[in-house]
Amino acid sequence: MRRNPHSRGFAIVSALFLIVALAALGAAIMHFSSLQQVTGAQDIQGSRALAAARAGTEWAAAFVTANDACPASPASLTFDAFNVSVTCSASGFTDEGAALKVFAVTSTASTGGAVGSLAYVERRVEATLVR
């Protein structure tokens, strides 16, 4: 069987193309897999930050209930490795002859270094308490 002299090396070109295409597909799969892991970890951290912010709001509510006044603002707390900043402001008004106090509480939980970094997570909870 005689070979055409112009068809030499065609199998090598096909094999190289197939190897490059499979390597690119593998790299894309690895990228999406790691991206999904990071997204899942950030979702969990976001849920933990929300729980810490709620804990700060509950702490402020307990303080207001016990003292009928706002805690010193901003109060810095730590819950589950989250830095929690709680601010509170009070105002009074009269409703149908009854004097009421309204407390506006904001609790912000954050962790992970500087804003904009991949590990940074922050959640804020606001509440209004009437006494």
General description of the model:
By secondary structure, the chain is α+β, with helices and mostly antiparallel strands. The chain has one domain (7-130). 44% of the residues lie in helices and 33% in strands. It contains one helix and four strands. The protein has a four-stranded antiparallel beta sheet. The chain is rod-shaped and about 110 Å long.
**What low-confidence regions span 5 or more consecutive residues with pLDDT below 50?**
none
Major beta-sheet overview: 4 strands, antiparallel
Strand order of the largest sheet: 1-2-3-4
Shape: rod-shaped
Strand percent estimate: 25-35%
Order of helices and strands: HEEEE
N- and C-termini, Cα separation: 100 Å
Mean pLDDT: 91
Summarize the amount of helix as a percent range. 40-55%
Structural class: alpha+beta
Number of helices: 1
The overall number of domains is 1
Number of DSSP-assigned strands? 4
Based on CA atoms alone, the radius of gyration comes out at 30 Å
Set out the fold topology.
Elements: H1 10-67, E1 75-79, E2 82-95, E3 98-111, E4 121-130
For this entry, give a set of tags.
4 strands; 1 helix; alpha+beta; rod-shaped; 131 residues
Short description:
This protein is α+β, with helices and mostly antiparallel strands and 131 residues long. It contains one helix and four strands, in the order αββββ.
